[in-house]
Amino acid sequence: MAVDAPSGRPHAQPDNVGILAAEVRQEDLEKHDGVPSGKYTIGLGQQGLSFCGDREDSVSMCMTVFRRLLVRHGVDAREIGHVQCGTETSVDGSKGLKTYVMPLLEEAGNTDVEGVDLVQACYGGTAAVLNAAAWVESRAWDGRYAVVLCSDIALYAPGPARATSGAGAVALLIGPDAPLALERGLQASHMQHAYDFYKPGGPYPAVDGPLSVYCYLHTLDTCWARYADKYERRTGRPCALDAVDHVIFHAPYNKLVQKAYARLWYLDGCRNGELGAALDAAGVGAPAESGAAASRHPFPPTSMPPGLEKYLLTSAFASYDAKVRPSTCVQRQCGNMYAASVWSGVAQLIETTGAALEGRRVLLYSYGSGISATLLSLVGRRPTSDAHAARFSLDRLQAVSTLAMRLARRPPAPVADFLAAAARSEDLHSSGGAVAYTTSWPDVRDLAQGTYYLTKVDDRFHRHYALRE
Ligand code: ACO
């Protein structure tokens, strides 16, 4: 598909999903939890989950990906004028994550850096990207780059949600003339009050799993309808899923991503009136109405006729394979990374697709419980300035990306280590947070070079970090 790529517009150039010290394989967790084999690997579609020992936290992960972004792309710390962090697992009730990463810029004498943290469930990173892009477009812009850091640790209480735990961080460089541009005007949101997932206190979130799944899918319906209307007003052409080459979803677990894409495929078929005959032929309309009638009024996610969801998953599978799977590997292996989840998909897509993204449209669905959600599109392009093309072209980004290698190198950890990490999180909450505490695991030698880690929290709650050289 060819798309007119805007130039000189703000856009995101993603890099460096934070890879954690250890991973748990979902098969081992199934055995430990005593659930039937396949419940997590097939039922939830997950291969593993990431977690942190006591040496890593949301701050250290932010510092790791931020430093790697600067080093790998030869960005001088003085070229950064704006930093925002999206997180819901900060380490302090007042002092933002952003302040903890400032030493990386301070050492170059750069303290003229706007931006603070944004907290709104899994949506904080997306809010930060939109703010950073708005800063580049604004009267406040001074020609420098913005950086967005998304970092989170997802840890659930024992029960069905626990297998969807995870952790990860992503750093994004935002500026003009970049290889993935936010499409002007093609952005639709849905914001609403709901108690599907929240953190009133204690070591674990309060989560209504079925409600959160319903809210995620129903919000997608609303965002797609609004996006499609805007697309049609803007381009004068009918909006169809064919106009989209790739779709990246916020990924609590991969099965929900598969269902979300099947739903998008269904909504597209309904909007364009193409589904009725197929549904009738497959016998999956509701008892009271034929597939043709059903396709004019999509069923809400919770009241699909029997067989319809299965039919959609099967029918959309080839399209899912081509448009969605290339962005899902990190998500399937690391679990829910909350604010980092959807943006890890961008980094993954660049690694799998590279320069082939030029001229292609990427749809991105960011969902945060509570509810805040945005469906937006990005377009791949070659930077027009020679300097930017040399540093940030998609083929170069692909060439320097090492995600698959770093994922493969993660040492598998026993379920017992994951449980120990959860127990430690519970202890910290009941004792009011770490104080006068020296970290001990994993062994520093087992951390990848270039990883920041927490060495201790002193008796004034000051946190001390070091770099694994
Ligand atoms: N083999 C294969 N599949 C299996 C097996 C098995 N042995 N056992 C169960 N399954 C399937 C089920 O059929 C079901 O499939 P379906 O979704 O196609 O119907 C799937 O596994 C899930 O099983 P359930 O029993 O329906 O649900 P469960 O009790 O495992 O809970 C839930 C799933 C609600 C998602 C839970 O993990 C949760 O609360 N997660 C946290 C909340 C969340 O992630 N919400 C998403 C959006 S909000 C956010 O990002 C935080």
TrEMBL record:
GO biological process, one term: acetyl-CoA metabolic process
UniProt superkingdom: Eukaryota
Lineage of origin: Eukaryota, Viridiplantae, Chlorophyta, core chlorophytes, Trebouxiophyceae
Positions bound to CoA: S212, K255, K259
Entry similarity comment: Belongs to the thiolase-like superfamily. HMG-CoA synthase family.
PANTHER family from the UniProt entry: 3-HYDROXY-3-METHYLGLUTARYL COENZYME A SYNTHASE, HYDROXYMETHYLGLUTARYL-COA SYNTHASE
Pathway named in the protein's UniProt entry: Metabolic intermediate biosynthesis; (R)-mevalonate biosynthesis; (R)-mevalonate from acetyl-CoA: step 2/3
Species in which this protein is naturally found: Prototheca wickerhamii
Active site per the UniProt annotation: E88, C122, H250
EC number: 2.3.3.10
GO molecular function, one term: hydroxymethylglutaryl-CoA synthase activity
Protein name, as recorded: Hydroxymethylglutaryl-CoA synthase
Catalytic activity: acetoacetyl-CoA + acetyl-CoA + H2O = (3S)-3-hydroxy-3-methylglutaryl-CoA + CoA + H(+)
Keyword Transferase included in the entry's annotation: yes
Keyword annotations of the record: Lipid biosynthesis, Lipid metabolism, Steroid biosynthesis, Steroid metabolism, Sterol biosynthesis, Sterol metabolism, Transferase
Domain Hydroxymethylglutaryl-coenzyme A synthase C-terminal, first and last residues per copy: 181-468
Domain Hydroxymethylglutaryl-coenzyme A synthase N-terminal, residue spans: 19-179
CDD domains with a match to the protein in the record: init_cond_enzymes
